[in-house]
């Protein structure tokens, strides 16, 4: 059989080299094609392992320039919140306290808060993390100033004995929401600056405790113990994730628990709340301190597995106070049942998990500030949701905390969306670095 021209001089070695080169070229082409299909570069497929974490494996999603699942979870929670705020507040004008409001008053204001929040969040995603890191001291100072201003008579707005809001016309702004955001930034920045001092308790932890203590005094003066608990959880959680010595972490935790015990011991109001929580059906508490809790439990009991149907809650008809804010989950339980509540819990679990995955990925890319910040926001969203759900179910003492992204509240929705927009920015910069770009 005649050989094709050009094959005559090829020996066994030549055939082997050609086959090897062909296989190498094919493998390179396959890698390049797979990288383009995944939305990255060929270099992104061969990223190293850092601290035991393969960077590509820690990426939450590969098919988009951002974590689409995170966005969808937030959108779904916002939509559910919009529906449930309308359902829970539609009967409020029948109450003389809200007689001057229309049936859609809280619904329309909630829509406005969401629109403003999404608009600001879309701008925030364009701000680089390095700028946020430089702005951290400004945010902390602004939070402290507003926490002081809200306590000034005639400036801060009081509701039900608490002075927590600054009236801004289109919405009432709650400085404690800014304080949560600022604390997540400050704790992440603090750990980056003090990374070499993690084994020295006085130099590593004391400044953080001083800042946290001062902020706690201002919050307890409002009073807003629930917000202080969330802020303390963010600070202590970031310290732990940042690698503070376990003995130091345990000592800080013991100090905070001791402070909470002292606050309950020397405050008759808080002490009565604890007793009411322990025995809500006692006649002494059922019509007093445990009134909200008992009606919340009744709402969950009526909901059973699949609920009474959307809009069919009875407890929202002036039996359950703050049904559209702190106890909106009870209305969800009554109207959508156990299945609806389980879906809400699953959504917050997934949201928290996404924040931690994005933070873990950033740390693997040596972006410690961005990573600790994202995980701090995960602690905020997951921790506050955990407390609110626990309060609604009677597993925790009653606290004035909203359910993130769902409960009515302009400044809460605004700051939740801003905080999550920065997390999305962390994810965008992570992906940019993995494609060979600069953050």
From TrEMBL:
Alphabetical UniProt keywords: Cell cycle, Cell division, Cell inner membrane, Cell membrane, Cell shape, Cell wall biogenesis/degradation, Glycosyltransferase, Membrane, Peptidoglycan synthesis, Transferase, Transmembrane, Transmembrane helix
GO BP terms in the entry: cell wall organization; FtsZ-dependent cytokinesis; peptidoglycan biosynthetic process; regulation of cell shape
Membrane topology: Multi-pass membrane protein
Short name of any one Pfam family annotated for the protein: FTSW_RODA_SPOVE
Reaction equation(s) it catalyzes: [GlcNAc-(1->4)-Mur2Ac(oyl-L-Ala-gamma-D-Glu-L-Lys-D-Ala-D-Ala)](n)-di-trans,octa-cis-undecaprenyl diphosphate + beta-D-GlcNAc-(1->4)-Mur2Ac(oyl-L-Ala-gamma-D-Glu-L-Lys-D-Ala-D-Ala)-di-trans,octa-cis-undecaprenyl diphosphate = [GlcNAc-(1->4)-Mur2Ac(oyl-L-Ala-gamma-D-Glu-L-Lys-D-Ala-D-Ala)](n+1)-di-trans,octa-cis-undecaprenyl diphosphate + di-trans,octa-cis-undecaprenyl diphosphate + H(+)
Organism superkingdom: Bacteria
Cellular localization per UniProt: Cell inner membrane; Cell membrane
Pathway stated in the Swiss-Prot or TrEMBL entry: Cell wall biogenesis; peptidoglycan biosynthesis
EC primary class: transferase
Transmembrane portions of the chain: 69-90, 111-132, 138-156, 201-219, 225-242, 249-267, 327-351, 372-391, 403-426
Major place of residence: membrane
Entry EC no(s): 2.4.99.28
Molecular function terms, GO-annotated: lipid-linked peptidoglycan transporter activity; peptidoglycan glycosyltransferase activity
Gene Ontology CC: cell division site; plasma membrane
Role, per record: Peptidoglycan polymerase that is essential for cell division.
PANTHER family the record matches: CELL CYCLE PROTEIN, PEPTIDOGLYCAN GLYCOSYLTRANSFERASE FTSW-RELATED
Family note: Belongs to the SEDS family. FtsW subfamily.
Protein name (Swiss-Prot/TrEMBL): Probable peptidoglycan glycosyltransferase FtsW
The species this protein was found in: Inhella crocodyli
